Each structure stands twice: as C-alpha cells, then as structure tokens.
Amino acid sequence: MSVKQFEAFLVEQFLADAEAHIKAGFRYQFKSPDSENSVRLYQAMIAHSQSSISASNGIELPFIQLSNCKIVPVIHSEDPAEYQGFTENYISHLRDEVAGQSGYLKGCALVVIHNSLLDTLINSAEDLAQFGQVWSPSKIKAAMKGLIDQQDKGRDVSNCLLDDQFDAILEDGATMFGFESLYKAVEDGDLRFNELGMFEDPLVAEMSGNSKQIKKRLEDNRVLYEELSFEVEHFGDQLQDRLKSFGEKFINENFSETDAWKDVEFEAFLQEKKRNAQQQLVLEEEQASEGMTITARNRSETKAGMRDRHLIIELDEGINDFELKLIFQGASNLDKNQFKIQPSKALGNKEVISTLNGFKTTRASLKGTYNNEPLFFNLALKRENKSEVYNFRCLVIRKGEFYIEPIKNIFLIEPTPAKQRLTLNMEANQLQIQAEEGAVCALTDAKQVVNVAEYSVVDFEALANEADEIDFAVKSGDNQLKFNVEGAVATDSLSLPLLLNRGRYHKLFKDEYNGEFYSQKGKVGIDNSEFVVPGVRLKLLRWEEAFINDKVVSISDCDTIKLDEVQAIDDAMHSSYVELYDYLEQRRSTPSLASWGDDFTTLVQNVVDASLAYFEAIPTGSMLTKEQKVALQIGLVKSEGEEYYSPFHPLILAYYLNLRKVIRQDESFASLPDVTFERLSPKGLLPYVYHPQHEFSYNQQVKENAFWIKSVPQEKSSLTFVRKLVKEKIDEFQTAFCQLFTGSEKSIIINAVNQDSAEELFMGLVDYIRSHLEQAACIHVNLYDDKLTFNAFDRFAEAASYDELKESLELNRNKKVRELADTIIDILRTRLTYSKFTNEQAEKGGQAYAHISFFRNNGKVDCADIAIEDMTSGIACDGLLTGDASESNSGSYFTGFGLKGIDYQDHPHLMMAKYVGALLKPALKPNTPYNGTNAVALAVSEDFKGLLERSYDSSIWTTIIDPKVTLDFFHSNEDVVLIHYSDQYTSSSSYDAITVTAQRGLFEKVIKQGDGGQINEFNAFNGDWLLKMMTCAPTINKERKGVIGAYKFVTSLVHNSDITWVPLSVAEMIRVSGNIGLKMSDSEFSRNVHGYKKGEISDDVLLVGFKGQDMYLLPVEVKTGSIPDYKKAVKQSKELLRYLSEDLLGNDNLASKLYRGLFMRQVLIQVDKYRLYNVFAPDYFDALLDNKEEWLKGDYSLAKVADYPDGFVVSNLEGAGCLQPEYQMLEGVLKVDLPMGLLPRLVETPLQEVLNGLDIVKLCHVPTEYVLGGKTQAEVLEADCQTDVTSENVHQETADSEIELDTESEDRCFEVEGDQTAPEKDVSVQGAEAVDTFKSQPSGTNLNVLFGHNALTQAPLNWEPTNTAKFMNTNTGIIGTMGTGKTQFTKSVITQLYRNRADNVNGAPIGMLIFDYKSDYVDDKFQQATVGKKFNLHKLPYNPLSLFGDMPMLPVHTARGFSETMGKAFGLGQKQQLRLRKLVGEAYELAGIRKADPSTWTKPAPTISQVWDLFIETDPDEDSLYAALESLYELEIFEDDNTKCMSLYDLVDGITVVELAGYPSEIQNLVVALTLDLFYSQMQKKGKPEVQGDFRQITKMILVDEADNFMSQNFPSLRKILKEGREYGVGVILSTQDITHFQTGENDYSSYVLTWVIHRVAKIRPQELKAMFGVNEKAEQEKLMETINKLEKHYSLYIDGAKKIVKMRDRAFWELL
C-alpha cells in the first residue's frame, strides 16, 4: 500500500480544522526553519487546489475552496526562481490585499509558510503553530494518537514513542515536523527505531500493557544510542578503553565498520552488558615464594577497583629470583597468553609465565629476576569478559632498603616508563622514611632527592602551599625511589560485618585475615586500605571496641556490668568471654571485623556452650536470683534511650555460629541475591521482648550492621513501608477508577485513621506527586486520631523556607529530584489540603466520604505469655530463616516466636532462643516466677472492628496497615471483599497490608462480566487479580479466567491420586515472595535476581505435590483465545520446570536449601488461603499440615510422577480451531486444547463441585493415561529429562455407551421407514382430513427451534428465526454426505417449526414448501407429525403463467421469466427463447389479457396446454424447444383447468411437499424453478410481514432438499428469494451434500446464508472455510477440516450468524416422536 506522506497528513488536519476556524480576511503564518519541509508542505497544500486567482503582474495564485472562504497558500523565498516562492515584500502586499477584503482577494484567507524574522509578516498574522492551533505540536500529537489507536499491534509502544517525541520537540522548540519519522513508522505499520534515533528493538514492540516499563526501555534505548553516537564520533579510535561495559570481541565485531553499530539490536547491547557484568574468575590471593614479602592493596573498593592490584614485593638479602603466584577461583580457562607484561621489556624478556587449571581453583605464576635496583612492571590479565580483567602493578625492591611501614595503606604504583613512581594518598604533610628518629628535611623544590642516611622525615608543607605537584625521590644506598603525594582519596565504605561481606567470601575463614579498628581516625584498615566508617556503623564499632577495651559485658548509661562480675555468676561463661576478648584485643579487631577462622569460631563456640549450659541449669518454678538476672543483661547496650543486642549477646553469637558453619562449606552464599541474603538474621528468634516501661518491644535488625539488633519499644515503632504502600495504592485506585480522574478537576480524598504523626503517609503523598508532577490529582486528607497531635502535615504547613522543606522531604537526594524540588513543593502547597478530627467526633458524626482509607490498627496490643512449644513456628531451614508466626484463637490473634513441631534439640541457636525468650520477662519484671516454657507474644483482640466498620462505610477501599490479624478476620465478615493483600513489604510471615472493600457488588459485577466466576476462588488463587480485573483489558481478564479454568481442569485430573496437590499462581509467587523496596519480580523466585533475561518461562500455574519426602512439580502454561504457538508454550512450561528444579530448588547447597524453605513458606500461605476460602475439601491438606515443620526445613527432594506428562499446556480456544477437547504429547508435555465453551462451566462451578460433581474426565473425554488415581510412582527430577521427543497423537475413542445405544435405536427407525409401500401418485388430500393431532400452544417465548445440544457442555442450541437481534438470518445451509443424519435433522427442524408456530409473531401460521427430490418427506410418520399435504408432479394446482403484482407491462415480464427459466432448464438457445416468449405473449392476447391494460390482468391466465396448442399450429421443427414444451404438456405437470388452479401462496399454508422423485432432472429443476418464479412474484405482491421490536414474523419457509443439482443451474429466482426473502418473512433452507455446491459459476449462494449446520463431508477447501466461517488462520483451517472429516453420525458443526462455531449433537426427528 502506498503510504500517505506526512505533509499530506498535516494538510488534511489543517483542512479539517479550517472549515470551522478559518475566516475570510484573516492571515495565518507557519514558520518552518527547514526550507525543504516548507516546500513539501506548500506543495501538499496546492495539491488540494482546483483553480487559481489571477493577481496583478500576471501571477496566478492557486487557492483551496472551502464552504465559507478561499484559502490562498503562499510560500516565502527571497530567490523566487528556486521554487514558486514570493519575497517578503510581495507577501506583505498580499497580506494587505486580504485584509482589505475588496480587490481580487475578496473572500480569501492567506496562509504564509515562511522562515523569516520580518515583524510585518509575523505580528500581523496568527501563528498556526502556537498552542491550541491546528499545527501546534500538541494538536498534531493528538491527531497522531488517533492514528495509533486504530492500530491493533504495537499500540502501546507507539504511544510511548509519541510522548517521547513530543517531549523532545518541546525541549528543542522544534516544529510539528519532528513527528515525521514516527508518523512514517506508524503509517506503514512498521516501527523502524533507527529512523527515531534508537536501536532496533523487536522485543519492546511485543510488549504491551505496562506503559511505565515500555517508556523505561525506550528511554534506555535512546540514551544508549546518544551515548554511543557521542563516543564513536569523538573517540572512534579509543573505543576499547572507553566502552567499559562491552567486551573486546563485541567491540571489534560491531564498531570496526562505520555505522555498523547502528544496526545492532538493543537487546544485543543489553546482553553484552550483562555478560560483562557477570564475573566468573575471582582472585583469591597472591602468594609469595621463599624469601619474598608481598604488601598488596586494591585501587578502590569498587568491583573494578578490586581488580586493580598494587603490590610492593620485598626480597630478602641474597635472593634475586622471585616467583609471584596468583590463586583464582571460579573459572578454569586461564591461559598464559592472556597475561602480558607492561612495559614489555621490564623483566628483560626473561620472565616465565605459567598457568595451571584445576576444578575450582586456578593458578598462575610469574617468575622473574631482580637486578638490585627498584623494578616496576604491570602484569596485565586480559580476558574477553571485561569484569575478569586484572592488573597487578608491581614494585620489586630489596627488603630493608626503603621503609614502607608508614605507606602500606596509602600507596599506589605507577609502572609506566614515563612515571615509575609510588603515589601516596595522604592528608598529613610529613612522611617518615626510616624507622629511627632523626632529622627532618623540609622540601623547597620539586623533584628533590632526600637521602635516608641524612634524614628520617620528609616535610612537604611548604612545597604543598606553592607547587601544584609534590614529587620527590628517596635515596638509599645506590638506589632511589620516586614519590608523588596527592590528597587523601575519599575512601569507599566497607560493608559490615565482615562475615557477611560476600565480596570477600574467599578470605572470610582465615584467622589471619582481620580488619583493624583505628578508633581515633574513625577508620578500619583491611587489605592494606583504610576505610572511613560513617555514622551508625562507627557508633556500633566504637561500642564493640568499648566492650573489649573496658572489659565490660553490658554497656548502659547507669549500671554497666564488668567482665569480672561474670566470674561470680558462672566460671565457664567468664573464662570463655575472657578468651574471646583477649583474642580480639591482640588483633585490634572486633566481632564485626574479625574473620571467622577456626580459632575464632572455637572461641565463639565456647561462649555459646557455656551460656547455654548456664541457662539450662536455671531451675523453673521460682523467682530468678540477682546473678541470674545479671546474666541476662550480658551483651546488651542501653544508651541514650536506645536499646541494642550487641554481637556479644549469646543468642546472636549462637545464630551466626550456626550460619558460619553452613556457609563455610558453601560457595553459593557468595552469590545469594540481596533479598534472600537480608533474610539471614537472628531477629526472628526473639521477635518481641518484655519491656518494663512499654510492656514490650519489637526487635529489628540494624541494616548498617546485621550483627546488631535494635529493640524498639512499641510506642516508637514506625512502619517504613507505609510510604511505598500509600503511593502504590493511590496509583492503583486511580487506574481502577480512571473514570473519576479524567478532566482537569480531578481530586482524590483520603481518610487516614490512627496515623499518629503521619510521617510515612505524608512522604508517600510526596512520592506520588513526585512521580506524577503536573498530572497529579488534588489530594484532600482527613486525619482521624484519638487526640489531635502535631503531625507531618502541620509541619509542612508551618515550614517557611524551601531549603528546610527540601531537606525534610528528601528532595535533595539526587540531581534529577533537585531540579524538580521547587515544582514538587509548589504542587504540594497548591494541591494538598487536610483536616483533622478525633475518633470521638467521627463516632458521633461518622467519617467523611473518601476514596481510600488508610487504617492502622492501634488497638491495644497486649503482651501475652504463650508456651513456646505450643506456638506455631515461623522458622524454616533449621532456623537459618527465622520469623514470628500468627495464629487465631477464639477472637484473639497471637503473634510470636514458636517452636511447635520443630526438633530444636540439636540446634544451639534455637535452644538459646527458647531459653532467652522464656527468661527475659522474669528477669525484667519484678515478682514474675520463671516457668521455663512461656515467652512474650502479642495478642490483638477484635475490639477495633467497630472502628473499621466506619471506614468500610465511608470509603470505597480500606487498606489496613499492619493488621496484626490473619486473613480469616476479614473473611468472616460476609459483606467485605478482600481485594488485595500483600506480604511483600516485610519479612515476617504475617501480612503487612490488606486492602478490602465493602462494595462487594461492584466486584461481583466485574467477575460476572463475561462468564461469572467465584470471587473467593479468584482471591484464593491470586491476591492481586481482583483489583487488577477492574483495570485491565478484557483480553487479560479472559486470560485470567483461562488460568483459573485450567488449574481446576488439571487439578481434577490429578486429584484422586495419593499425592496432595497445591495449585500455585506463579505470578502470585513472584509477586509475594518479594520484600520491601524490591520490584515485584525481584523476589527470591524471580529470574532477574538470578541474572536471567526474561526468556520463555511459564508464569501461569504450578501444581506442587507432596508425598513422603518428595515434592512434585507440575507446571501448567495456559493460553486463551486463538491457536497459540505450541512450540513456545511447551518451551515455557519446560523452562519453568527446569528453572525451578535446576536453578532454584534442586541443588545441594545453601542457596537451594534457603529457596526450598522460602518456597515451602509460599506454598503454606497458599494452603491457608485455600482453607480460608473452602476451595478444597476441609480435610484435604491435613496430612501436609501435620508435617509442615519437616517440609519447612527444606530437606525434601524434588520428583516427578513416573509415566506422566512433565507439564501441561492448556489452551482455551475460541472459534473453529477447537470444537472438542484434544490431547497430544509434545516433548514430554501434554498439550490440551479445550473449546472456549467449556471455560464458563469450569470457572463458575466451585472447585469442590468440579472435583466431585462435574465429571471432567468424562465430559472432556480425557484418555485414561492422563488421569492420576491411587498409588503413584516417583521419578527423580533429572537435570535433563528429554529422552523421547517423538509426539504421539492420542485419538479419542468415544466409548460413551449412551451414544452407541442411540445409534442402534435410530437404525431401527430407519428400517421401519424402508418397509413402507411406495407412496400413492395421486393428489393426497389425506392431510386435510387428518385431524390436527398436535395443537400448537404458545410457550410465552419467541419462536425457538432446538437444533441440538452442545456436544461438550450439553447446553441446548436454539435457533430463533424471528429474532432479528441475533442476526440469525432465516436462510440456513445444511450440508453432509449420505448417512450423516442430515435428513433426520432437517425433518426435526420442520416439525418443530410446525409445532411451535404459536410462538411466531402474532401466532401467525407458517407455510412450508418442501421440494422433495428423494421421497424423504412423504412417509406417514412425517406426514402425521406435521399434518402435511403432498403433491406429485401431476396436475399441480397452480399456473406458472398466472399474473401477480402491479408492475407495468406485467404480462411481458412474466412471459420473459417463463422463457428464461425454460431456457435454463432445457438449454434453449436465444432464438428459441424468443420464439417461446412470443408464443406466451400471443396466448395472453388470446385470453383477452392486454399487456398495457392492468384491468385485464385479472382474467384467467392461459394454461400450458393452451400454449402447446398455439405452438403446434405453427408446424414446428422437432428441436429442443419442441422437446421441452412437449414434456410439460405430455406429463400434464400443471393443471390445465383454470377453475381448479389456486394461488401458490394460498396453497402453501401448512406443510406442503412437492415430491419430485422419479422424474428426469431437467423436469425436476424446471418445476422447482417455475414454482419459485411464481413464489417470488407472489411474495412481492404480499408485502412485508409484521415486526414487533426485535422480532419479525415468519410467513413462509422453503426447503430445497438435495439442492446441488438445482443450484448449479443458476435460476435467478432462488438468488432473489435468498437475498430479499428475509424482508418478507421468507426463509430458505438449502440442503446439499457438499459445500462446493453453494458456489456456482455465476452465484455465491453462501453469501446469503448465515446459519450453517455441517455434517461430515468428503472434502472442503480452505477458501470456503475462509468465506463461510471467517477462518483465516492456516492452522485453524486445518484443524477445522480434520474435525469435519471425523464427525460421527448425528454430530455436526453449528455456525450461527456471529460465525461462532460449536460442535453439536443434532436433535433428530425420531427423538421428537
């Protein structure tokens, strides 16, 4: 197709607008800096001009004629010869002419296209590009949006690109031509990103729905493109060094030819970046040979800095040969050719490099010789992956020659030939150059040489103030060493504690590797580098140091406990702590800085053992002694109102001791994703503790140092996640109810209940405004609290200075936000309002109406004592993952630490948790006896229900923050629907926010749209969907229903086995297993965390099975709609299985064990929801739950069911592709195709009913091998289980007994029919005499015929011929070869039409005319059932020449029609037809009928015998005309006595059968054709029937049985009746053996037929499928052909007017009797 040019599009926009806005006498201008664009625009304009105006000087001005004025476009050019342009002067002249409205430009408006600065042009004309005008960028953007929205594919991407271009145009101040490249892309439907200054990105073109994601990706694409353009243009020859994130090979491949890089796909760049970011090869350490000392440090703490090593190598006296050994981990493909020495001759080319690759450890070695002078060189390791490139910059010197102690933490080596020096980063202005004290040398000039023999200190203060560079040399003996001093570098910070520093994993378990703490400097020295320790970390380290230096075991403002006091309590404890302190003191280290080598670990073990033994020995049943109370203070810090558990606390030591044992063996620790890593903390071992003043405290991990735990009294706890929650909920609400937020006056009302100081809430609102800026809605907040307090809103209102606000609102964090800070504050000031109330006021007057309420349960939380052993446990993986758990007990909800079902005896940290938990309250609360079992748990009562009810009533959504209750609290309230619950914000195992609504009806409507469904089942399966169902496109809802249907389907196949199955929503799993601050997908299970690109992975359903020690995984990928790409779907399903089993859960390492524990937590949450909503039978999960603690350990293995598919791909298919369930194995995965018609049944029926009542297996004919029952065998999940890739087709053997019975009884019927004697030949009037046995009674509905039942769902399929709304056009095609039950079906339809005639509009009778070619409709049964009349071809009582109608010259038309029909039937030539026409005309004249005189037309018409008589008189030749007339006359087909003839319309008043059997085919066809000719003229005379509302009365039906032969003759009347009959209430049923009969040379009858019933046929061509059923997809066509070929008797495909195809079991005629 030719694409409309952009300028033509612009002119069209202009003209559409001009009609309304452009007036004569007005001047308009458009400024275009680009003359080429101007010319194109001008030419596009004059293309619309029809003629021109003659101006002065013989100039012709083309104009465009509008209804109210003429538009004269002109273009400005100072060089008119160039193109048809005019100078500024001439244009000014035209402008004045137009303004005058008198001369030759009267009635015209002027449009000037120019690039001029001339005021006279600009000021006196309206600018078409200014805001609101037709060519302003915003108007063109809107027009483009219109274009884009018509597209079906890539709409979302184009819209994002459009916004993008629009912003760029505004930024550059460009004109509307900036949209051109995008316009082209949209117009030809082919997005070419390179035209838009971006890389090709087919992946983004496939994305839809999430515009934020798309925008982000496009933005990244554009940025990269611009960045690379810049690099290539300015640094084309240095790309290898400049492009840090691409490998050498990649750069050579893509950047060597000019512009080749522009053709690389964006995804390729991303992959390359990712590849270079994944470092396999990691340096463990450098080792020295005999007589060699190495001092080594990193350039910096960044990843790249850690690969830049600086080494000072000192050689002992007498040793000149040295060997530097490098030990690497993680890759085994090191090659000596990857090493280079720089400068190349540094070692005199005598060096020897060798490498040795081991399984995990790889070694390299460099041997060289020292020549008694300082030797500088760099050993570079070059690898394809940039993140594995190392530099070892070395300086070799003689030991003792230079004093390096003072510089060992601050040096860098510069080995380049030009420099060859040491650079020192230091703040001080003095450097000691030898160990002994001595003279100071003050430098005055640069490059001074200082001799060690004379001086011991160099002072460069004076030089520093004068010179730019401080450089000097130190001379020692014959050698000298150059130094360069630079200011101190801002050092990187160090992540603490060292034990959890994953980057240093390979060094963590060596006793000699420790950090040193320099308390005065506030720095830590490690790896020969010094690190500044900021803020909180420093405070904690100073406390750790105080424990050791002051020899105390507890720090407190008032009563610190000395280490010596412990001796009085317990000897073993005392001595173990003493040893630990001594060890750390000798190394100037602290617990957070020490490596946990074997020695240190043993010391910690001693402390833990001693403490545990002491706690175990405390007797129960009495009060604690003073000593025992002191013992429980060990390791605590209480200072300035804050309380901490320090790393010296026995519980914390016990936890990390256990963790150390686990990670020591296990490298997977080093690569754990952050999310999982953050879960490794002891805080869940002691979640709540008794607090003397505040009743209890929460324990929270200190994020700056995980060895510390902070105890926060309940009063002060703040929930940081509220901020994120508030913003997300407002966004979700706006999307869900977008109708409320269109237009300029949009506002959102929020009720905030019990939010106290509302800090987090306020910051959430700031974030919301920050992300929407001008698009943000106005916000009004009503705050309800117990008493009015000063809060964040008040503080904002009272703050005067912007700077103060920027600080408090965190608007000075990064550059991007800083730029917007003022705008954000202004928007907050203008759009945010608030009111404050007390809860008491609200009790009286109710809460104000709001869109969302944020409700915080501040109900009094009581501190209860609960037996640890009886409390549900939140522990997984043997206590590596800790946490509290919640349970409800008669109206109260308890949350706390429990060990129920856990065998904790072998785990010191769990034992410790039990004792410390039970001892703390007796230790802190006077008069409390110690009973050894109870610990503090939180108890919440239901009293806050009343307050909640108020929120429900006043707002659409209520989000309950930190509900402290379990889901069943909400579920027990019938009117409330949970729409969303999340626990992705915090790591406790309870929910942290639940959103509910009391507007239940709203959601029920949403789910019912389409096909109904169970709110509870949706909610149980996925907590996110209900909310999303309101906001997303219908197709997505259909997909979600598809997923629900599929999981119920698969569950019903496996339900009866001995495995307990839990269906999981994979999307939910990915969403919920996250944690605060993580994108939903970045949770443990998402692939992003594991460094994957989002490839083909199924995210629909995963069935998890439990039996014995094995967990079974069965993935189900679901497709809904059209025929999917099965290969891809199978791949997705297998990928999910592979990913879960190989990458996540299946390995034998720490990471996998943690994932197994977390995964199990996930499954149990799901089980809770199924139980809450009663989805499964009440006791279904009992066995699993009895054993849940075992499963949570994460020690189970993975398995799959033997001899069963590895997974499923379930497709719910619409249309012709699938009319019955089909099953096929593809690469071990079972592909199931279900017709869409089944989905509503599956979705609407509750699961328990599906499992017990709906027999899915039978309903869907599932082959038995796919139904699991009874005992199953397990198979280990192998890493690669693709053994057989053959695909066997499973044919359905429908062994349904009922169907077989039917066919038998039906054959019996046929036998009876066959025995009848041949029907009599004379006119049978028995019909008229027969009593009408079947009195039709109106049923109160419209006319219905039961065609049959849906073969799958057994739903009745009705045909409603009178209903015009259903466009079930009455014309029906019935197709099928012999013996398919076609005639039985047709008879059934006729009989029902007859029986139900009382339901016709006004109960009018229906006349049915049946042309029976095979004597099918003359048997007694049919005649009796329908009280029919039958006629043979003898003296048919109507006259084909009779006249009906009032058309002028009617007899001539009738004669013409008659001769044409005879001609077609007998193949007469033109001359013969003319003769016949004259003959008939003559017969009319003789009968006294004159063609021009209508009054004579009522006389009796001539009969066929009269025409024959006239013909014989002419003494004719015996040609074909003779033969034709003779057969009509001889056989006496039509009555020749006019008195016995009647109107055909009157004749057809009930069932009228014309029996044609036994006659030659041309006679048969002639009779049908002549009868239809007559019928057509009478139909028109009769006029239109009655219409009531959507219902049109049916008057007559015509059935042509076996119509093949007749249709091929192309008689015109058939086509006319098919085409026009509907208007007259006439329908035609055509029954043939083959579809091809509907398309003859001249006519395509199928286009007039809307209802089809297709039985088995021999062949069918794709083009017919396309034309008749609208099936275009090749795959669907093949599927449909196969289905039609395999239809059994009495089965057909029913296609209604909407082209909807259903497989049907016919209602046969004999079933009606």
> What is the helix fraction of residues, given as a range?
25-40%
- List low-pLDDT spans: 1074-1095, 1279-1333
Oligomeric state: single chain
Percent of residues in β-strands: 15-25%
What would you note in describing this structure?
It is a single chain. With about 1700 residues, the protein is α/β, with parallel strands linked by helices. About 35% of the residues lie in helices and about 20% in strands. The strands form 13 sheets. Strands 57-56-68-67-66-58-65-64-59-61-60 form an eleven-stranded mixed β-sheet. Strands 46, 47, 48, 49, 50, 51, 52, 54 and 55 form a nine-stranded mixed β-sheet that branches. A seven-stranded mixed β-sheet has the order 28-27-29-30-33-32-31. A hairpin with a 3-residue loop joins β12 and β13 (about 360-370). α48 packs across α49 (about 1505-1515) and α52 (about 1560-1580) packs parallel to α54. The longest helix has 25 residues, at about 210-235. It is globular. The two termini are about 60 Å apart. Mean pLDDT is about 80; it is low at about 1075-1095 and about 1280-1335.
